[in-house]
Amino acid sequence: MSSRSLSPRASRQDFWESLAAGTPGPAALAALRTARRNRNLLLLRVAHRCHRADPHWAAAVALLAEVRRVRPEVFAELLGDPEAGAWLARHAPPRAPEDGAAGGTEGEPAAGLARLAAAAALRAGLRFRIRVPVADGTALVLPGLGAVLFPAPGPGAATVLCDGSGAAALRDGERPVPIHGAPAAGPDGAGGWFPVPRLRLGGGAAVRLDTLDPLRLGGPAPLPPRPLSPAEHTGWARRLDGTWRLLTERHPERAGTVAKVLRVLVPLTEEDGTGWRSASFGDATGLAALSPVDDPAELAADLVHETQHSLLYAAMDLVELLDSPPGARAAVPWSDRPRPPAALLQGSSAFLVTAGFWHTELRLGNPAARRPYEHGRRTAATALATLTAHDDWTTEEGRRLLGALRTVLASWEERDRREERDRRPLP
């Protein structure tokens, strides 16, 4: 998209300065949310051109169209969900075949869209009936809502329906499994409905704790659903409660940004085998994968870091920031492998904002903030210097963002020098 896509109510420079600081205002956040919804709508249209000849795809599209007609705000929310973004990116090829031609993996695109459509229809309170896939014959996942886990393998699809008596999932020849708000195990205690838990952060903000969505870690291979145990739920509620108190009391602007951007937290475990401290994914803005860190300040820093990644991913939907030659790579402080310009831009922005968090902690008297502040500041400065040296890697708007990031960095350095001078004894 061109730079004209930026909000006309504020100058482009104001937009980039607020993004560089990690605290964009309401107008900027609205523009970024709209950009991501529009991107996902375009992906849906491309996928529709590829798969519309499939009757199962057509049934899912028809249900989504009804959601859009009756509850347009629910449809808009679906398009902004990280789960929809991750799925659409996998099933909307960059170039669509001729109208009416089939494409993609046989059956899978229609099956995945049915999951999204059923979840949206349940949110909208519609009466409907649709066939939805059952992964490995045992798990029927409704993105953002929960999963029906069957006690034994069975048919590869089930019917999700909602009528006057409520919502349920039904496999051929079996009794219906009710779908409702609370967890409900089946009669044998093994299967049943497991909703995605939601945790209140305060002030109306809430996040979903998702261990059920197959694409929750953004990788090429879907993961099996794993219901969150009561102990895990309690642990995350405790961690986020302490972290949110710290953010709102000591970093209120950053707390507001996190609350408006993050929708989904994916708890990481050693069994995931990622080795990540935290992570986010370009196709799933608003999602952060987090390790169970018990220090409130450290977990707050991780939330701020991943929130900034989501903001910049959405900004890259809004306007072109990079125009680098194919294969461009450069060394970065956070990896032993040379990384592309997009990774340098993401890293410089996210590490700078995280350093900003620790800079505030340091000025508020937290002595443990010195080391992570210096690390984040040096890391961001190194990545910024590399991008600045490769002027041909960025567009005009990209250079505006780099300039705003350098301004933030320079303001800290000047403030630190001034405070150091003030601490020196008079001669």
Automatic annotation (TrEMBL):
InterPro entries documented for this protein: AKG_HExxH (IPR026337)
Protein name: HEXXH motif domain-containing protein
Organism per entry: Streptomyces caelestis
Lineage: Bacteria, Bacillati, Actinomycetota, Actinomycetes, Kitasatosporales
